[in-house]
């Protein structure tokens, strides 16, 4: 193997940026690391090159462990996005630089320089300065310089990111040709899917520091294993369905299944994927070449050169949860992305507003990931209520569950074994283990090892705010606080405010409650001085939340109250007989305390009988402002 990465880990200020990445590359392979910005791609490249330290793991190049070696001793060529040419040197001097510092003879330097300049299409331009070259030409010089001393591996960090589209196409074709000629094992980092498809022998898709899937481009596109890869590699239509013996069931509709991500028989939940090119469109049901999904309205058509892109709106299908494209908040419909050739578009023209029958030629099933839940215990009686409720929710939601015990391992092991025997039946997966470190370190390690959707903890003494704040500091999981033993909730109060965070609250609550068979009330609290315009805007937002819940199978109603937020929420909880309260988590400081301060803290102090679900919002995570006491006029300002 040319390159072997073994369990690479890297953290910056407690934040994991590369998590347990292992990978093997064969000799001469062109491998593309693909993922969104911030996914850890460039960090991995720099760790291989020796430009970034490694917290854990090893890097082996051609069987040689280079983990502790400096960059110049690794035999690695590196091409940066910003060229990094020496501005005071000519093209020839730039290409020869690596050979010069390695004391290569003058004649050999010139021979290698001229050979490489011809290879990258810059023959005869050696005397020019970088400023006299175009961006594409400068990047070719950077590539020639990286190849000059014949590195064992070549690393390219988004080298074409600053160039225009046409030059990018030309350069990547040249790069692929050059790489095949010289046979150097290459890792290319990009966030451009088209670039990855054109260049790669294999693609590795990254997100949030993790390497999710590795495979040939066509295989990853046609047969992805995970939701993220399905939606990141091109446009995807994803619905929630169930497998049958001879296909897949999407609500009341049945379709033959082309492929499945993992083998398995019987009735199980899956995510059903069909690409835009898998869609068939016709004037009538009888003219469809494949099974019908329904009659849709054309919402938008877009000319995209050689093909036409369409967005179609279908009436909501009973029992079907759309995953992608994401349905706008409050819309009770399904959206479908389709594409067709210009010949098909000319033969059957469609415009916005037209009605058309929609069929699906090919479907692929991904095993549905379901929820991942984390339960915590120190073996004491105080954690029992949280364990019982968490296990019931996990069983209803078919959630993969981990029980993490902290304290004396010898005492905890028998306790964890009893929990495995008691809670294991009915769960798709249950892992129970103890923490070797103190709780703070153990939580960080556990969440880095495996991200969770929901953590469940007890709020009975001695389990106070400290544990909750530690969980809010680590990872992005939502948090369920359980004060006492209680049954599964039948009615849930969801407190929202207008805006993106409120949408997140409704969407995660719907994802959880649909498994529990609970109904919901969507509540927003207005200031007593709220204008009529504010009231109407809030009413529309709350009603949209009700529609979103209903679409996902959760019976819901709306409620508005006016007055002090804490007082009105507590009063509604008492009057409505709710078994659970859902609140959005406000912005957090580094110590996590801001999330449990202010009105949220006051509400948690007042609600001592029912479980409280704190929902983490991505919108909130991106904000840099904090709530002040002067902003405490409505729910949005107080809980966000």
Defining key terms:
640 residues; alpha/beta; ten-stranded mixed β-sheet; seven-stranded mixed β-sheet; 19 helices; 32% helix; globular
Describe the structure.
The chain is an alpha/beta fold and 640 residues long. It is built from 19 helices and 32 strands. Helix 3 packs across helix 4 and helix 16 runs parallel beside helix 17. The strands form 5 sheets. Strands 25-24-23-26-27-32-31-28-29-30 form a 10-stranded mixed sheet, with helices on both faces.
Helix content: 25-40%
What percent strand? 25-35%
**What structural class results from the helix and strand content?**
alpha/beta
Count up the helices: 19
Distance between the termini: 51 Å
Shape: globular
Task: Summarize the entry for a quick read.
This protein has 640 residues and is an alpha/beta fold. Helices cover 32% and strands 30% of the residues.
Topology:
Blueprint: E1 3-12, E2 15-25, E3 30-34, H1 41-49, E4 56-61, E5 64-65, E6 76-79, H2 91-101, H3 106-119, H4 135-147, E7 153-157, H5 165-182, E8 185-190, H6 193-199, E9 202-207, E10 210-215, H7 217-222, H8 227-232, E11 237-244, E12 247-250, E13 253-255, E14 259-260, E15 269-274, E16 279-282, E17 292-304, E18 307-315, E19 322-324, E20 333-341, H9 342-347, E21 355-360, E22 364-367, E23 372-377, H10 384-397, E24 400-405, H11 409-423, E25 430-434, H12 439-449, E26 454-458, H13 465-473, E27 478-482, E28 491-495, H14 500-516, E29 519-526, H15 532-551, E30 556-562, H16 565-576, E31 580-584, H17 598-606, E32 611-615, H18 618-621, H19 635-639
Parallel strand pairs: 3-8, 3-9, 6-7, 7-8, 14-22, 23-24, 23-26, 24-25, 26-27, 28-29, 28-31, 29-30, 31-32
Antiparallel strand pairs: 1-2, 1-4, 4-5, 9-10, 11-12, 11-15, 11-19, 12-13, 15-22, 16-21, 17-18, 17-21, 18-20, 27-32
Helix pairs in contact: 2-3, 2-4, 3-4, 16-17
